[in-house]
């Protein structure tokens, strides 16, 4: 028999009061609890179709929400960028929004000839509500400035996902699929001449392909517009030897942009 079971009621209460004075005011389970999984389960239970009382002679059919169809409907109803932002903020079928601080919609100049599509917000982006504001964003700004571009003058920036995934994990295919209608509408409303696709996840979402090392530097078409993939600045921070190739991509973008004038 352990010492805890030998305590009388008064001794046990005194021990608990002592722990409260030390600040131990919350029970801790023997095993960790995945709060994200609990949130998902709660949402799935809430979204589960509720069977209506059957009418005599009438068959009962369950109705489930299709996140992609709901996203397509919401995106199609947005006639302006501001309406699209509001539609995305109101879209509650993506669980990522519940673990994020802010909706990261865009930065830069709407209507610019160049639109950059990144992957997903990181910690700094989630805090500030803008894409590419951390160390990777600072490097991106330097890359743009080297070819005469700036988010404050002639570049528009967004991400595939508007919410930060937990612990900066890669977005899941289902998450990309349900947000892609918003991305397509975003590109249509921003109406750029050229797309700079930044990172492997962005290539997957817009080109249906992965393998950024192979894809980078080659012009393709995404959402009916010329698009060139390149390395994500975060990758360049980890692999600085790839900056030469990224610079070649920026020069190709600059040359294509001059040809439009």
Descriptive report:
With 261 residues, this protein is of the alpha/beta class. Helix content is 48%, strand content 10%. The chain is built from 13 helices and 6 strands. The protein has helices at residues 3-6, 9-21, 35-47, 67-76, 81-90, 96-99, 123-128, 135-145, 173-190, 200-207, 212-215, 233-238, 243-260, and strands spanning 107-108, 114-118, 155-159, 194-198, 220-222, 225-230. The protein has a 6-stranded mixed sheet, with helices on both faces. Strand 5 and strand 6 form a beta hairpin. Helix 4 (67-76) packs parallel to helix 9. The longest helix is centred in the C-terminal third of the chain and has 18 residues, at 173-190. It starts with a helix and ends with a helix. The model has no long low-confidence stretch (mean pLDDT 88).
Evaluate the radius of gyration: 25 Å
Which regions are unreliable across 5 or more consecutive residues at pLDDT < 50?
none
Strand tally is 6
What does the largest sheet look like?
Answer: 6 strands, mixed
Calculate the mean pLDDT score and round it. 88
Helical coverage, percent range = 40-55%
Global structural class: alpha/beta
Q: For the largest beta sheet, what order do the strands appear in spatially?
A: 1-3-2-4-6-5
End-to-end distance, in Å? Answer: 86 Å
What is the string of SSEs from the N terminus onward?
HHHHHHEEHHEHEHHEEHH
Question: Which percent band covers the strand fraction?
Answer: 5-15%
């Amino acid at each position: 028999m352990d010492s805890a079971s030998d305590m009388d009621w008064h001794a046990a209460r005194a021990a608990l009061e002592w722990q409260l004075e030390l600040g131990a005011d919350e029970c801790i389970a023997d095993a960790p609890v995945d709060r994200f999984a609990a949130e998902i389960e709660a949402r799935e239970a809430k979204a589960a179709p509720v069977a209506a009382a059957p009418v005599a002679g009438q068959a009962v059919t369950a109705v489930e929400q299709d996140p992609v169809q709901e996203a397509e409907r919401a995106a199609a109803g947005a006639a302006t960028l501001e309406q699209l932002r509001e539609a995305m903020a109101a879209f509650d079928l993506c669980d990522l929004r519940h673990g994020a601080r802010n909706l990261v919609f865009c930065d830069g100049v709407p209507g610019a000839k160049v639109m950059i599509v990144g992957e997903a917000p990181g910690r700094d982006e989630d805090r500030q509500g803008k894409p590419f504001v951390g160390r990777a964003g600072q490097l991106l700004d330097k890359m743009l400035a080297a070819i005469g571009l700036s988010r404050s003058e002639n570049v528009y920036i967004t991400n595939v996902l508007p919410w930060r995934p937990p612990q900066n994990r890669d977005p899941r295919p289902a998450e990309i699929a349900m947000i892609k209608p918003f991305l397509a509408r975003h590109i249509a409303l921003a109406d750029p001449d050229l797309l700079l696709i930044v990172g492997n996840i962005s290539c997957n979402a817009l080109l249906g392909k992965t393998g950024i090392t192979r894809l980078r530097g080659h012009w393709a078409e995404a959402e009916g517009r010329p698009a060139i993939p390149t390395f994500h600045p975060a990758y360049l921070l980890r692999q600085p030897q790839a900056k030469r190739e990224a610079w070649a991509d920026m020069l190709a973008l600059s040359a294509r942009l001059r040809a439009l004038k």
